Task: structure prediction
Amino acid sequence: MSTEETDAVNEWRREGSELVWRRYYGPWEVSARADTNAPFTGPIELRIRLGIGGPDEDEIVRLMNQALETDGIPASLLRQVPFSQIKAEFRAALEPEQHQVMGEPWPVPERCRTELDYALLVAELARLRATDTTAPQGELAARLGVGKATLSERVKRAKELGLWDGKRLTDKATAILNDWLSSDRREQ
Result:
């Protein structure tokens, strides 16, 4: 950590469908927002603002003096923002939710009976789409040994259950998968 930074550590926190990263550099608060529903794993917003406050008046005066010295946001601060680290931390935070989107296939059951079954189905469909497969539904249908019409009906049912919006998993599906992953890891 440079001397410009305060003792605050990097922090990710969830705000709805977004993850927010925050770090303080002297008087400057830098935050980045990443949307879990975005089709990419990176920030959608970067914000730098004067972040002075709190009960310690001496600290407020010290930080305000630093801000006055730089006459606004310094260019050197922009060079310190760790974009690659932010993206890597966001990907790591999403891994349980996305189950390595480009990695191992989801264990889709041959028949879908429960919400978990349908969540696994659409998670695998999302994974196949992320691999630039030309016909993800056809490929998944073939792998499961069902017709394309049957798979289309299952995807339609997943939408009715609120697990799929036609392009990506919903927060409901993500929560179901995270619960399943957590219980699966506890059993191992």
Q: What stands out?
A: The longest strand covers residues 18-25. Confidence is low (pLDDT under 50) at residues 1-9. Helices lie at 57-70, 75-80, 83-98, 115-130, 136-144, 148-160, 171-187. Residues 171-187 form the longest helix (17 residues).
